[in-house]
Specification:
Length: 363
């Protein structure tokens, strides 16, 4: 495993310490937790009834196929951190009919690993008008976000962006419990929305290390949580399809600053513009991840997402090396991909920041 990028933010030249994080190139992990999918877990509720029927009738055939196409990463979250990943796409859910309060990550099916080692159960007593709170130790020790917090403690100048979304099967009670647990876990490391401009220097001075995006209206009253981060998802099977989509979005201009109100998950460029802000403001993600439809998967039984990604990598790599961060409307910010361990996504994305040095030197 390449550890040369584990402290890349603190190793950047001082000239880049005052550039907004939204103008830096940041490597990201698409479906970051899919390395630990549980092949025997149920399908997530959002899958179609027809697909659910097929899965029930032909389980021995569908499950290996689901597993190899839903798995987008093969490194643990600690390994991804140490390789330089700083944006994590985290899809959180509660299993249907699960009597426990365990939360898992998902991508078509659920993960083995849970989200937190402990969950705080908040019970809203409407009749009395207050929250009752008690702690239940219900989760096994293979927690995930606790590992992130521990890693950050040993890397005090590295900043991570955690994008929690989807939340299938999570009601208001579990939302409040999860948010309470996140605030308890990360504490003073959470960067609040009131921070107008996020730079490495300002974050270091304040002790902030976590930008926590929470894609739910439930989080609107919590100043420590940020709204959904726009993600340019091409939904294409080929590198050229992904590149065409991303280039089209670049021509339209980068998304504006986050909307202050919470809204459903946004992917469309025109829906993420905010009037009154320049086009250089706000985090956004360019996804290099490929997507195969079910017809292609059925007709190519020997293929997997891994083989598809590898066979398209050189084309994606060439395009990526030609990109640049910065405040220009056609610049990129967070760049996320699949199999970020075997493929050199991190080093390529981090290297793009040196173009900012050359640009400033010319001036």
């Amino acid at each position: 495993m390449d550890l040369s990028c584990q402290d890349w933010m603190s190793a950047l030249p001082e000239e880049l310490w005052d550039i907004p994080l939204t103008n830096l190139a940041i490597p990201g992990s698409h479906d970051a937790m899919s390395y630990c999918l549980d092949i025997n877990s149920p399908l997530v509720p959002s899958e179609s009834d027809f697909f659910r029927l097929l899965d029930g009738l032909f389980y021995c055939f569908t499950r290996p196929t689901i597993f190899k196409w839903a798995t987008t990463q093969d490194k643990t979250i600690e390994e991804q951190l140490s390789m330089g990943i700083r944006y994590f796409d985290l899809r959180v859910a509660h299993k249907p009919k699960d009597p426990s309060n365990n939360l898992y990550f998902t991508h078509v099916i659920y993960t083995h690993l849970t989200v937190l080692v402990r969950i705080i159960i908040l019970i809203l007593s409407l009749s009395l008008g207050f929250y009752s709170m008690f702690v239940v130790n219900v989760l096994p020790p293979q927690e995930t976000l606790v590992s992130v917090a521990a890693w950050l403690k040993s890397h005090p100048k590295e900043i991570v962006i955690l994008a929690c979304s989807h939340f299938e099967g999570i009601d208001d009670r579990l939302h409040h419990a999860f948010i309470f647990s996140l605030k308890k876990l990360f504490g003073s490391k959470l960067c609040p929305q009131k921070e107008a401009v996020l730079t490495l220097r300002s974050l270091w001075e304040s002790g902030y290390q976590v930008v926590l995006s929470y894609d739910s209206q439930t989080a609107a009253r919590h100043p420590e949580l940020w709204p959904a981060i726009p993600y340019w998802w091409a939904n294409q099977r080929t590198a050229q399809g992904v590149i065409s989509y991303l280039d089209w979005n670049k021509d339209m201009g980068r998304p504006g600053e986050f909307r202050l109100q919470f809204s459903p998950r946004l992917f469309c460029q025109e829906n993420t513009k905010s009037e009154g802000f320049s086009s250089s403001e706000g985090f956004f993600v360019s996804g290099l991840n490929l997507t195969a439809d079910r017809l292609y998967i059925t007709e190519n039984p020997k293929q997997s997402l891994r083989t598809l990604t590898y066979s398209n990598w050189e084309c994606l790599r060439t395009w990526l090396e030609g990109q640049k961060p910065g405040s220009d409307p056609k610049s990129l910010n967070i760049i996320a991909g699949d199999f970020v361990g075997p493929l050199p996504l991190c080093s390529l994305v981090i290297a793009l920041n040196h173009k900012l040095l050359r640009k400033n030197a010319i001036r």
